[in-house]
Request: fold
Amino acid sequence: MDDLSVVKKILFVTFYPLGWLWERIYKIRRLGYEISYFKSEKINVPVISIGNITFGGTGKTPVTIFLADYLHDCGKKVMVLTRGYKSEKENSFALLKNGVALRYDASIYGDEPVLISEKLKSGSVVIGKNRGNNFGRFFHKEMPHVVLLDDGHQHLNIQRDLNIVLFDALTSLANYNYPPVGYLREGWSALHDADIIMINRVDLASVEKIEKLITLIKQFITKHTPIIQCVYEAQSWYQNDLQLPLNHLAGENVICVAGIAAPESFSRLVTMSGANVVNTMFYSDHFNYKKTHFDEMILESRKTGAKLVCTEKDIVKLRAFINDEEIYVLRTGIRISQGEDLFLKKINTVCSIRGLL
Reply:
């Protein structure tokens, strides 16, 4: 056994009691809602929760956008309820409408809410911690047909009609432990409330690893809960709102800029588009960019002669500093690679959509 393995084993034994306590607290909290000890609000339209049981990115925002697009195509108006993590409006409220001519400021409203509002075909995004109150505040103004509860699996004070729980295929199985040893934000027993399991980025993990993850998940879900598999796909490039084909940067040297939970998956998509990644400038998730950070990117680009490329989530913050500088944005989307019929059947049933499958 090497030194690193010994250290990991010592840490696990040392902190296991804290993890056990963490799991019990969340389990008692969920039980409190189940027995109506804590109040859970029922709202008068279907509610679909998109969440996870781990810390870090599992693809909640892309799945939310995928669902919003599908529901729009089915004639349903969507309202997305989101916390607006690390935004100025997180502790109050705000309403973002799709299709506004003047773009919203990500430093005020948060990167993910702004991104969702810009990609919505119709509907709105409501920001703030108290999602039940915020729904009531804006319901009569917006009159949505369906509510999407972003990062909602632990937000139990709103009742939901469908629970979607996400996993990232790239997450190491060793990290499915409780803090501070692992990434679990809630115990495995919380999967009993899942109606759909979605595993993202399955094309980037081995078949053996995915099978082990599915075996682990199946211990905690009902036999009727479908496990859906998804991939992220690069769709096109765009620059200054000009859409460009996916092969536009094929053979070009690029620098990948990303402040997301899994930046390596972004650089892989860039490579798969045909571009040559010569450097990466990765920052923490929800990173609060300053002008100095953008100046560093431009300096590195000029020094190496490589073009800057970034994610859709990053451009909503970086564009505050862009003048005539060239920066390319990779447009991506979710594609269900296995279980699409089961997934859409559950969505259609909850949202009273008929005759589409």
